Amino acid sequence: MKFLFDFFPILLFFGAYHLEGIYVATAVAMVASVIQIAAGWLMWRKVERMHWISAGLIVLFGGMTLILHNPLFIMWKPTILNWLFALVFLGSAFIGSKPLVQRMMEHIIQVPRAIWHRVNWAWVGFFVLSGVVNIWVAYEFSEEVWVNFKLFGLMGMTFVFMILQGLYLGLYAERPVEAESGPSQDDERH
């Protein structure tokens, strides 16, 4: 459910593009982003920072696309968003006691501090690369290829990267401390 909520502006953009073209899709994404923020507030009484940033960029770049009748502005939006994320992850390596990826994930998994820093740097690189690849596709391929890449390519790249990150973190995961209830039955059998 949360996955669909997070990605419904992209999904609506994709559907609207294939029905009505880039300008209607852009307007739909702008409206969907505003609805996403309102719905988040109504359901959970909070709006994720990522939704605010994404909506702001969609309204800004979408508005420029519609006013100037130039689809390149909306095509730049994923690149700008990815590069902003890269800057945030980069900044977290130098500001505060923990990199951003550690703050986001340490309640799920415990790994040595150096591993958190490596993973944080990997996210910086991933976001920079994603932004570059998005612009390359936007300029080198057709509009339709870019729209399909925006949904399937960028999302696919993100899922593959997250799986690789999970496997990497799993190599260094620290085992939880056993409860102090005495030896386990397995220990007594040996």
Q: How far apart, in Å, are the first and last alpha carbons? A: 47 Å
Q: Per DSSP, what share of the residues sits in E-state strands of 2 or more residues?
A: under 5%
- Average predicted local confidence, pLDDT: 91
**Overall tally of domains:** 2
Task: Tally the beta strands.
Answer: 0
How would you sum up the major sheet? none
Shape: globular
Order of helices and strands: HHHHHHHH
The helix fraction, in percent, is over 70%
Structural class: mainly alpha
Rg to the nearest angstrom? 21 Å
Number of helices, where a helix is a run of at least 4 consecutive DSSP H or I residues = 8
The low-confidence runs, each spanning 5 or more residues with pLDDT under 50, are none
Keywords:
single chain; 190 residues; mainly alpha
Question: How would you describe the overall organization of this protein?
Answer:
The chain is globular. By secondary structure, the protein is mainly α. The protein is built from eight helices and no strands. It folds into two domains: 69 residues; 105 residues.
Q: Could you give the topology of this structure?
A:
Elements: H1 2-20, H2 22-44, H3 49-68, H4 72-92, H5 100-105, H6 113-140, H7 143-172, H8 185-189
Summary of the model, kept short:
The chain has 190 residues and is an all-alpha fold. 80% of the residues lie in helices and 0% in strands.
